[in-house]
Amino acid sequence: MNHSADVTHPSHKATISKLPHLNDKPLIFRGDADLQFLLVGGELVKIRSNSWKKNRFFKLQEDCKTFWHESQKVFKRNQTFSIDDIDSVRKGRQSEGLNKHTDPRVEEQCFSIIFKGRKKNLDLMAPSGGEAKQWVNGIEKIITNMSNLSRQQKSEHWIINCMRKADKNEDNQMTLKELKHFLRQINVEVDDTYAEEIFKNCDKSNSGALEGSEIKHFYDLLTHREEIDVIYEKYAETEGQMSTTDLLNFLLNEQREQVSRDYAEHLIEKYEVDGKAKQKKRLTIDGFLMYLHQEEGSILNPAHKHVYQDMNQPLNHYYISSSHNTYLMEDQLKGPSSTEAYIKALMKSCRCVELDCWDGANGEPVIYHGYTLTSKVVFRDVIKAIKDYAFRNIVHLQYPVILSLENHCSVDQQKLMAHHLISILGDALVTKPLGDTMPTNFPSPEDLKGKFLIKGKRLNKLDAAFNNNNTLEEDTVSEEDEAADCKENGQKAKSKKSKIKLAKPLSDIVIYCKSVHFNGFEHAKDNQAFYEMSSFKESKAFNLADTSGTAYIHHNMDKLSRIYPAGSRTDSSNYNPVPMWNVGCQIVALNFQTPSKEMHLNQGRFLPNGVSGYILKPEFLRSLSSQFDPNTLTKGPWLQRKTFHIMVISAQQLPKINKDKHKSIVDPLVRVEIYGVPADNASKETHYIDNNGFNPMWNERFEFNIQVPELAMVRFVVEDYDSTSQNDLIGHYCLPLTSVQSGYRHVPLLTKRGDVICSAGLFVHLMLIDAP
């Protein structure tokens, strides 16, 4: 069963009563040539290497959401993947595989399907450029239309697809056996007696199978949300409906929004689905539910979904989303290096990437993790990928990207590195200070829109850029701190004071991010220029944050600091970034390739401000008069004591964790975690609910005392309880406390890798008030 509502209009509520058949397709698919083309399908060449190129038949299945393709695997002749699994589609030879294994002459025939998570790209070649274009256009249309659906519509879409799968014989009817199968699919376990009771209640015709209006009745019983009824009935005081006044009372009293009557009327006009009610300027319960599922009813403040902060402050006044060992797809001992890793990081709003550069064969520098078995990727190819993808999303990803060079190359290959950077990045590369005079401070992200900055060693001071530069063509400089650590971990017996020869052309393009060794805060204050920055291994940084918090904060008011994981983290695990943000460190580099709680926090930190990769630090981390120390919390403007009240009410359509076990149902619990200054760190969790991932309800209240709300983050974690082993993660969501909306809110849920789980979510009530 699928919606007959036009999915191009997310504000229109799809209703199942309009759908007499389980096999109906959305109207958007009817008459669209590209989408009809996908439903017919066609033969494509699947490409894995120069020698592995196989013909395979691909087609879109009737649910308009699942792709089927043939396979030659003995035990898996037919394979499928969902539109939800696709991250993006790339036209042409835009993947590493197609670039390596196909001829430039077939550029127009090629395209790649890029999957979320670690699933390998699908590199394909169509018989003609026209057919390749139809495949790409068709897939992009489905992705766009799915993303335009409201969360409520996605929920309905998901339930209906489960219904279709349960209808084994495709007769548009549902027997008792199929109903039980369907309930297990949607993650709810009921005993046979209850299942029979539901079935009997809906089977008005006593035919032994549900069809038409009976399926609609069953759907209504299933999706009825008692908690929404309670809220609605409290405020619907006008003939059982919400008038404009009633809705305004709800917005002012429950949602704590300072809004006008006009805004309440606007919401009714936007979300009410009943024409007669809309004429009377009233909101029915269906319209109310629609509102709660839209961005106005989300936990994230809609104003923060766009760039809303001042982007004209100096660069060092911002947290900058940063990646460590960006080239790695997996671990740091034998995992693959890939341009794809850079693309994925950049598309996740990373604005500082790392390049570990070594001498390669044929005179071409390569990038890999030195002294290990990780594979190598050509430096030139990485720079091309960075150029192509750094600013591809011009709406969000427009602010500067820093290329952090860890340079192990010979002088000749360094010159080639400089040549590639200048020739490939072109005018986007900052090769001299902005303006005509020697700067005394960083330019702003706004000044540097669409620009690349190089972080690395420099042979001289920056003012040489304005003088007659008589620097030698090459000279020795002390090695990068991280490069020395790399050797140490590679068991190479070299001193940390080791030197490398630096080529002038590479030195000259290091402008605002010159790497220098850290010799203490006083030394830095007296001897370092604003553009001279240090990199800190996590252990050193954490020690400084613990023992000299205020000094570290003042250091970061004038300069940039980069933090990187210990070399001993060979599994590419991560450290907790929060203590580093608390002392104002800007470039807190994490292993983006490793899904972890730490990456969830990073994703949450950079969720607001348009997911731009830049977040303005609080005023007390920028003001020279500040004496803030996160560990002692003396009195100051940072101390704004609040009480954060949370009621975890319910969840909807949580995914099954063990999909291989047909009868496996989750036992969900919710944990709410606060991260910030040490005094604010806390965690509280609900009880678990047996065998219900579809619509579990907790109604549990928690209270958190917050000292420094501007640094606090809240993380929701939903887990599958297990009494004998560690709980499994079902989903999570993290955001800064300053971006949380009060009142009744829906919380989206993300996978471990940070992708949205389309139909799933939490329903909560939140209130942040001044502490007594």
From TrEMBL:
Protein name stated in the entry: Phosphoinositide phospholipase C
EC code: 3.1.4.11
C2 domain: residues covered: 622-751
Positions in coiled-coil regions: none
Membrane topology: Peripheral membrane protein
Domain called PH: residue spans: 37-144
Annotated glycosylation sites: S205
Binding site for Ca(2+) 5: D720, Y721, D722
GO biological process: intracellular signal transduction; lipid catabolic process
Residues annotated to bind substrate: 46-73, 455, 457, 535, 562
Pfam families: C2, EF-hand_like, PH, PI-PLC-X, PI-PLC-Y
GO molecular function, a single term: phosphatidylinositol-4,5-bisphosphate phospholipase C activity
Species name: Sparus aurata
Cofactor note: Binds 3 Ca(2+) ions per subunit. Two of the Ca(2+) ions are bound to the C2 domain.
EC top class named in words: hydrolase
UniProt binding sites for Ca(2+) 4: I665, D667, N691
Cofactor (UniProt): Ca(2+)
